[in-house]
Design a protein that fits this description.
The protein is mainly alpha-helical and about 350 residues long. The chain has 2 domains: about 30-110; about 125-340, Orthogonal Bundle (hpI Integrase, Chain A), CATH 1.10.443.10. About 55% of the residues lie in helices and about 5% in strands. The protein has helices at about 15-20, 25-30, 35-45, 55-75, 80-90, 100-110, 125-135, 140-150, 155-160, 185, 195-210, 225-240, 250-265, 265-275, 280-290, 305-310, 330-340, and strands at about 165-170, 175, 190-195. It has a 3-stranded antiparallel β-sheet with strand order 1-2-3, with helices on one face. Strand 1 (about 165-170) and strand 2 (about 175) form a beta hairpin. Helix 7 (about 125-135) packs antiparallel against helix 8 (about 140-150). The longest helix has 17 residues, at about 55-75. The radius of gyration is 24 Å and the shape is globular.
Length: about 350
C-alpha cells in the first residue's frame, strides 16, 4: 500500500506544471489520510485471509458475514469491523453493494453495543479550571481547555493550533483551523470565532508567553497528546470529577450542549461545531443534555451557589465579586496583568 501524501490541489496552467505537481501522488491514496490508511491496512490484514478462494459475490458476502460473527464471539472491537468493511470498499470499489448481509450484521452490532461517548463538561467547570490555571501559572493549559469548550474544537485541533492561526481582538478571537476532519472532506480550511471573555484573555496571554521563546509556526502546545490528556486527568482529580469519566472530547461535547442551552438554536450549534449533518449534532447535544453532568447533579441543589462552590476548588482564589458573569472582568484582567510579568512555567 502506498503512503498517504498531504497534497492540496492547486490548478496549474500548463501540462508540464501539472505533471510536476502530481508526482508521487496517487488519486486513490490522496482520498484518505495516512492514519486512515493505517487503520484500513490493519483491519484488512485480518479479513483478507478469510477471502481466499472466493469466486462469486454471494460467497464474498457469506465469508465476510461469518468473519463478523467470529469477531463478535472473540470479543473484537466494533471499529475493527468498520475499518475492514470500509477498507474493502475503498481498495476494491466493485464490492460496494455486494455485501448487504455483512453491513446488516454491523448495524446490529452497533445497536447492541452503543459507543462509549464522552460525557459533556459544563461552563462552570471550565471557568473554575481557567481560574485555577491563572492562579497556578498554567495559562497555556487553561487557554487550550477553554478553547476546546467555547470554540467546540476537537482534541487534535486543540493540539495543532499555532499562534499564526490565531487573531485576537479586544473581545473576540478568530481561529483558522488547518487539516480538520470536516475540512479535509472538501479540501478547505475552516475558521471559528470565540467571544467568551475568559477564553480570549487566556489565549491572548498564552500567545504572548509563547512568542517569547518559540516561533509563531510552532503549536501552542509543544508537548505530546498524552501529556495533554495526563494534565486533563489531573484537573479532573483536583476538582473531584474523576467519577464522571470526563475525557478531552468532553470539551467539544460540553461546548455544543452549552451553546444550544444558551441560544436555543440548533443551526448555530451546527455551524459552530462544523457538522455537516444535523443528525450528528443532535446526538452530541441531546445525549449530552441528558447526562447527569449537564444537569449539574453533583453540585448542591441551590443553583445560585454553583459557581461559588466550583470556584472554591481553585486554591487561594478570592471569592469577592465572583457571583456574576459580567462582574468578573476586572478581577480577571488584574490577574492577567500580574501573570504577564512572570516567567512562563509550563504545566
Amino acid at each position: 500500500m502506498a503512503r498517504a501524501v498531504k497534497w492540496t490541489f492547486v490548478s496549474k496552467r500548463t501540462k508540464t506544471e501539472r505533471k510536476q505537481q502530481r508526482q508521487n501522488v496517487r488519486l486513490c491514496d490522496a482520498g484518505i489520510t495516512k492514519r486512515t490508511q493505517a487503520r484500513y491496512f490493519n483491519a484488512l490484514s485480518k479479513l483478507l485471509p478469510v477471502l481466499t478462494g472466493i469466486f462469486t459475490a454471494l460467497d464474498l458476502d457469506d465469508k465476510v458475514s461469518n468473519w463478523i460473527e467470529t469477531a463478535w464471539e472473540d470479543g473484537e472491537a466494533l471499529h475493527l469491523v468498520s475499518d475492514a468493511l470500509c477498507g474493502l470498499h475503498h481498495y476494491e470499489g466493485w464490492t460496494k453493494g455486494m455485501i448487504p448481509m455483512s453491513w446488516k450484521l454491523f448495524q446490529i452490532w452497533k445497536k447492541l453495543e452503543a459507543p462509549d461517548r464522552a460525557p459533556p463538561l459544563t461552563a462552570d467547570i471550565l471557568y473554575a479550571w481557567g481560574n485555577y490555571a491563572i492562579e497556578h501559572n498554567q495559562v497555556l493549559l487553561g487557554a487550550l481547555l477553554c478553547l476546546g469548550f467555547f470554540a467546540l474544537l476537537r482534541t487534535g485541533e486543540i493540539l495543532a493550533l499555532r499562534p499564526i492561526d490565531v487573531l485576537v481582538g479586544d473581545t473576540k478571537a478568530i481561529l483558522s483551523l488547518q487539516h480538520t476532519k470536516s475540512g479535509q472532506r472538501d479540501n478547505v480550511g475552516e475558521m471559528v470565532m470565540v467571544d467568551d471573555f475568559l477564553t480570549v484573555e487566556l489565549l491572548r496571554t498564552a500567545m504572548s508567553l509563547h512568542k517569547r521563546s518559540m516561533s509563531d509556526k510552532v503549536p501552542l502546545w509543544p508537548y505530546s497528546a498524552e501529556a495533554f490528556r495526563r494534565h486533563f486527568r489531573k484537573y479532573c482529580d483536583k476538582f473531584d470529577l474523576s467519577q464522571h469519566k470526563f475525557r478531552p472530547y468532553s470539551l467539544r461535547r460540553g461546548g455544543a450542549t452549552h451553546l444550544f442551552q444558551c441560544s436555543g438554536s440548533m443551526e448555530l450549534a451546527l455551524l459552530k461545531g462544523r457538522w455537516t449533518s444535523s443528525r450528528v449534532a443532535r446526538i452530541y447535544i441531546y445525549i449530552g443534555w441528558s447526562k447527569p453532568s449537564a444537569k449539574l447533579d453533583f453540585f448542591p441543589e441551590n443553583k445560585s451557589n454553583v459557581r461559588k462552590v466550583v470556584l472554591l476548588k481553585a486554591v487561594n482564589l478570592p471569592m469577592a465579586g465572583r457571583a456574576g458573569g459580567a462582574a468578573e472582568g476586572p478581577s480577571f484582567k488584574a490577574s492577567f496583568k500580574e501573570i504577564s510579568g512572570r516567567s512562563q512555567q509550563n504545566c
